[in-house]
């Protein structure tokens, strides 16, 4: 794991440039991704707290991975706070989106810490799947060379890189449980997280689209086409989402580390880049 401490789109006042439809000029894709970004600062704070709550007694390797996970998530939180300020600067009212998020995070925080960790495992699976799509099919989602698009690529690489940390912490935290108990709780939490996440994410996107004058059945149809038709993010990630329910599942059963190497290679010297390409 590499902590890539980068900053994106800063103006002198600390705000990123206020580009309204930054996702290739697509208001639907922009709304969907903006809605996701708004959830990240509070969500990633929850992830950090959940993993840290169960780090006692982990292996030295996992302890090091948890430290890097925390550093990466802190950087992601900082950058998405700046990104979200730019969304507001572009003219969007985030009041209702933020209220829905506060309710969801509050419900999780009321549960025992082991539930925080299970929710984190489920959401980290989602973010890893989204990250895979962004990096494997960039022209479908965020092909531009603006700072907002680059932030998502950077975030995606690190989500893939640390995608197993919460899951390995879960295995440690539940090491005295039966396989059935561990599987049944994580599966139940994934189903509940999926329902709540999709309901909230769709509501957030429709809220932001309405602020661009896209409302009613037209808005719902365009959002459904974006998610299920073209580019069809949800349709495309469904098989990998379902793999979570297999007994013996582990995030690295899907080895997409080549996407990380592909991102890092242009940022290295020629000799390092050649070595990375050979490794792929």
Sketch the major β-sheet.
Answer: none
Spans where pLDDT lies below 50 across 5 or more residues: 269-280
**Spatial extent as radius of gyration:** 19 Å
Helix residue percentage: over 70%
- Ends: how far apart? 17 Å
Count of domains: 1
What does this structure look like?
The protein is mainly alpha-helical and 280 residues long. The chain has one domain. The model is unreliable at 269-280 (pLDDT under 50). It is built from twelve helices and no strands.
Keywords:
70% helix, FF domain-containing protein, mainly alpha, 280 residues, single chain, UCP07580
In brief:
With 280 residues, the protein is an all-alpha fold. The protein contains 12 helices and no strands.
Ordered list of secondary-structure elements with their pairings:
Layout: H1 27-52, H2 60-89, H3 95-109, H4 113-136, H5 138-141, H6 147-161, H7 165-173, H8 179-210, H9 216-229, H10 233-242, H11 257-264, H12 270-279
Helix pairs in contact: 1-2, 1-3, 1-4, 1-8, 2-6, 2-7, 3-8, 4-6, 4-7, 4-8, 4-10, 6-11, 8-9, 9-10, 11-12
């Amino acid at each position: 794991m590499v902590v890539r401490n980068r900053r994106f789109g800063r103006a002198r006042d600390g705000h990123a440039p206020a580009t309204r439809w930054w996702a290739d000029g697509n208001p639907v894709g922009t709304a969907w991704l903006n809605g996701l970004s708004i959830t990240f600062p509070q969500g990633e704070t929850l992830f950090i707290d959940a993993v840290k709550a169960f780090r006692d007694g982990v292996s030295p390797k996992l302890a090091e991975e948890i430290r890097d996970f925390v550093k990466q998530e802190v950087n992601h939180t900082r950058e998405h706070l700046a990104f979200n300020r730019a969304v507001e600067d572009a003219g969007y009212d985030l009041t209702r989106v933020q209220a829905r998020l506060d309710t969801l995070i509050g419900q999780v925080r009321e549960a025992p810490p082991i539930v925080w960790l299970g929710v984190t495992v489920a959401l980290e699976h989602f973010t890893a799947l989204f990250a895979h799509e962004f990096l494997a099919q960039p022209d479908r989602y965020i092909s531009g060379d603006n700072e907002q698009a680059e932030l998502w690529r950077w975030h995606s690489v690190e989500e893939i890189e640390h995608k197993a940390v919460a899951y390995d912490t879960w295995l440690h935290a539940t090491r005295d449980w039966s396989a059935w108990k561990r599987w049944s709780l994580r599966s139940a939490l994934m189903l509940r997280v999926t329902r709540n996440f999709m309901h909230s994410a769709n509501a957030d996107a429709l809220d932001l689209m309405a602020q661009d004058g896209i409302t009613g059945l037209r808005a719902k149809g365009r959002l459904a086409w974006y998610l299920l038709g073209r580019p069809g993010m949800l349709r495309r990630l469904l098989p990998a989402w379902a793999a979570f329910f297999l007994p013996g599942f582990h995030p690295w059963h899907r080895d997409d580390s080549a996407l990380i190497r592909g991102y890092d290679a242009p940022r290295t010297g020629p000799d390092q880049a050649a070595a990375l390409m050979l490794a792929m």
